[in-house]
Structure formats: C-alpha cells, structure tokens
Write a structure and sequence with these properties.
The complex is a heterodimer of chains A (about 180) and B (about 250).
Chain A (H helix, E strand, L loop, with lengths): L1 H12 L4 H12 L2 H17 L9 H19 L4 H10 L7 H5 L2 H13 L2 H12 L4 H8 L3 H20 L1 H9 L1
Helix pairs in contact in A: 2-3, 2-4, 3-4, 4-9, 7-10, 8-10, 9-10
Chain B lengths: L4 H10 L5 H13 L1 H19 L8 H10 L8 H6 L3 H22 L5 H18 L8 E2 L3 H8 L19 E9 L2 E10 L2 E9 L8 E5 L2 E8 L2 E7 L3 H12 L2
Helix pairs in contact in B: 1-3, 2-3, 6-7
The chains are: A mainly alpha (about 180), B alpha+beta (about 250).
C-alpha cells in the first residue's frame, strides 16, 4: 500500500520528465543504446532515492541524477571524447518523421554534427538551454556549477557552434587527420 | 576584437536572464556597439535554427515500458530516507488538511485573493494540464490558424478568449479545447514550446479575484495574469522563463 502511493507520486512527479532525461543522456553520451541503458539506470536510481526528494523542481533533480550516471558510465567505459564522436558520426540517423523531412536536411545535419562536436561540457549546457529550455539557475543546479560558469560556458558554446557552422571546410579537413 | 560585454552579458540578455534594469542597460549599450549588435543577431539566428530543426530526441516507447515494468520490484524508499521523511499516509493526511484549510480559508474570508485559495487554484490548473497530456485530450480543435481556433470557441463560452499564434516568438499555436477548473468552464489554448506543451487557461476574471503570480508544482510551472477582464494561467513543464515570455506576448497590445 505504502509502496503504491510512493510509486504513484513518482509517476506523477518524475516520470513525465523521461523524455528530458533521455535527451540529455543521448547528447552527453552520443550513442542512443548507451543513452537508453543509462536513462533506465538513472530512473531506477531516482526511484530508489525518491524519498530524499521532498519538493521543488523534479525535472532538475532527475536531470542531475541522469548527468551523474552519464559521467559515471563514461568513466567506467573510459570513453574519450574523440572516439565517441567519430563513432557517432558513422551511426545511422534516427527515424525521420514527415515534419523533419520537410526541414532543410542540410541545416539539420550541420547543426546536429556541430553540436556533436562541441566539447562535452559545452554541449550539455547548450542542450539544457536550447533544447530543454532550462534557466541558468536550473542548469547550474543540474551541472553543479556556479551560474557565472554556466553563463560564460553558454557564450563559448554558441560561439564555437557558430564557428563550426560557418567554417565547415576547416572542420572537415580536421576530421581527415 | 570583440566587445567584452558580448561575451556573457549578451547571452544572458538573449536568454532573458537579465533583470529589467540590466536588460535596459544592455539595450542602451546595443545602440552604440555595432559589434554586440552583430553578435546578438548571429546568436539569435543560431537559436532559431536550433529550435526549428528538432534535435530533441524523445525516449523510445520501449524504454518507457521497460522502466515502468521494472519499478514495482524495487523498494520505494531506502531505510535511511524513510526515517527522515514522513510516511506517505502522513503526507496524504497533511495534504488533505492543507486542502481543507485552503478551502475553508477561502470560504471564510470569501477572498479569492487569499494565497491558500490561489495555491488550490494553481494545483487544480496543473491537474488540468496533466489531464490534457493524456492521449487524445490535448485539443478539441487542432489548428495552427488563429482564425480557425477563435471561432471554434464562439457559442461555447460566455466570453471570447484572445487567440493568437506566437510562432514567430517560438510559441506556435497548436489548438484549443474547453476545460473545467474549479467548477468553471474555461478555454484552454495549446501552444508548443520546443518539445514542450504549454496550456494557457483563460477564464472570465471575477471582480474580487485578481489571480496573478507564478510558482511550481510537481515539476510543472505556472504563471497567472489578468488582462481585459480575463484571467489567464499558463502551465507547462517548460522553463519558468518561457512562461514569463509567453505572458509578455499575451500582455502586449
């Protein structure tokens, strides 16, 4: 009985943010299979420690757990940034929906690749801000960084992404090395 | 080479993270700094591109069901945490007591401005948002065209909700429906915000009740405001700053 109530509360508060959890894991880890595994692990972890969550922003609380699980996974699997990036670039794209096909595919690919190539700590900030719509305060809480660092990181991340988009030739040459 | 402000202040401005004074100050600076102007335009363009190409990836359905099926096998809380937090029945009892106090408080003072009543209303509004997230419940009229959605409400309500598409500002209109909150029939306007859904509930404002303010419940944000004799409340799991932006769009003439 008690367990059922706790579960209902978890389902109402935390489970709605599953998409946010998966999206963050996918962008931190690059790979979708890894992202699924780590998201599941993070969700179960969140469930186990749900008793310590009293009130506040459930999404930020969950994303913080997801992020920690991602970095633990990366450390355990000794993934270096460069290797995973090249792997991901060779991976097939996700299933297209009619809407996404209608978009300018070249823009989309360029942006996706640009985002993939950002250093991980810039990428996660940009994903939280631009895709997830988190405030600076939430990003600071999720990434355990001061707000000032979030702010300057975001500036750098956008600058680098723009640079990548305007100088694709240079980047491709870099990849051939 | 680049203006120092453009490194961080500009981004905080772009993200709506500057307070009113900071924003005004930066706008004054923009007038005299072509460098910042160029940087801001480029960053805005990048943001727009990012929001349009749909890079957000939703969790596959298989993952969702895998997680749901693995939940009940686990103990709900660790022993350590249980000792520090009230048992669920205690929480329920507390919630019931608070609700009762809120309702009684509202009746007694007959003031809908009472914070406890506003909290109850906020909870009811977030509930309505959650209900709308069930498959098939989001919109009775699905259209991105405000001239289709607006007439749909004619004859269904005793007031005309202002229906406007804010796609240019990143809040595309998705549709509308009727909803019931606190026993009253209200209009619900549905907007998209990146991958999030925003419900804007519109009701006739009661003379004694000027519901405004904002808050969060269960990970959802709400923002309420009044305009032209109507009462508005936006609810979403999108960021609080996004709701504030939408509110400003509604308040603009």
């Amino acid at each position: 009985m008690l367990q059922q109530e706790e579960r209902a509360r978890f389902e109402a508060n935390v489970l709605p943010h599953l998409d946010a959890a998966y999206n963050l894991a996918r962008w931190i880890l690059h790979g979708r299979t890894e992202a699924q595994d780590v998201t599941q692990e993070a969700m179960l972890r969140a469930y186990r420690f749900f008793g310590t969550f009293h009130s506040g922003d459930a999404r930020a609380w969950l994303l913080q757990i997801v992020r920690n699980c991602c970095y633990t996974w990366l450390k355990k699997n000794r993934v270096t940034e460069d290797m995973s990036e090249l792997d991901e670039l060779a991976m097939p794209q996700e299933k297209e929906t009619p809407e996404s096909l209608a978009m300018a595919n070249s823009d989309r690919d360029a942006l996706r690749r640009g985002l993939e190539q950002l250093p991980r700590h810039f990428r996660e900030i940009l994903v939280l801000r631009e895709l997830e719509g988190c405030s600076y305060k939430e990003i600071a809480a999720i990434t355990s960084r001061p707000i000032g660092t979030v702010m300057s990181g975001l500036a750098r991340a956008r600058q680098q992404l723009r640079q990548f988009l305007t100088e694709p030739a240079r980047k491709e040459a870099h990849h051939d090395l | 080479m680049t203006c120092e402000l453009s490194q961080t202040r500009l981004h905080a401005y772009l993200d709506n993270e500057l307070d009113a004074m900071g924003a005004a100050e930066f706008e004054r600076h923009l007038e005299t700094c072509p460098d910042c102007k160029t940087q801001l335009a480029a960053s805005e363009k990048l943001r727009k591109a990012l929001s349009q190409v749909q890079l957000y990836e939703r969790a596959p359905a298989s993952l969702r069901s895998k997680i749901q099926s693995s939940l009940p096998k686990l103990p709900a809380t660790t022993h350590g945490s249980r000792s520090t937090s009230p048992a669920p029945w205690q929480r329920l009892a507390l919630a019931a007591a608070l609700l009762l106090a809120a309702v009684l408080g509202w009746r007694q003072w007959d003031g809908a401005n009472h914070p406890a009543y506003q909290q109850t209303l906020a909870a009811a509004t977030v509930d309505a948002h959650l209900r709308s997230m069930q498959p098939g419940h989001l919109a009775d009229v699905v259209s991105t065209d405000q001239h289709t959605v607006k007439p749909w409400f004619d004859g269904r309500l005793t007031f005309a909700p202002p229906v406007r598409d804010f796609a240019d500002a990143g809040f595309p209109l998705i549709g509308g429906r009727l909803d019931v909150i606190d026993g009253r029939t209200v209009a619900a306007l549905v907007y998209g915000r990146r991958k999030h859904i925003v419900n804007v509930f519109v009701a006739k404002a009661e003379p004694s009740a000027a519901w405004s303010g904002s808050g969060g419940i269960q990970g959802y944000h709400w923002t309420a405001w009044q305009k032209d004799g109507l009462s508005f409340c936006a609810v979403s799991d999108a960021a609080a700053a996004d709701l504030e932006q939408l509110k400003q769009l509604f308040l603009a003439p």
